[in-house]
Amino acid sequence: LDYNEPAPTRTADKVIDGSSPFVYFVRSGSDGAIKIGWTSNTDRRLSELQTGNPIPLTLLCLIRGGLATERRIHQRFALHRITGEWFFPHGDILAFIDCAKTNGGADGLG
Asked: Is 60 exceeded by the pLDDT of residue 23?
């Protein structure tokens, strides 16, 4: 984390620094929990997450969207929440990820 770099201004689904926001789905291990979050810098975010996690993390999917999209996805899968942004790898979530990958990163939330 570069503390000298100014933080981007965040709005609902935009990051005002020229970067496009994405919602990411990251899995802990081969069959572990799935973190659903958003970022405008995927490489940096994955590095930050891995630093605090002893189990290898795998990026499963990226979809276009920021905070508002992330919130809609969290609400959709609220029954499968473990804590915070971590969810059980329920079939509904895995099917959503497969569908998003098939549709080129579209969120399918309408």
From this structure: yes
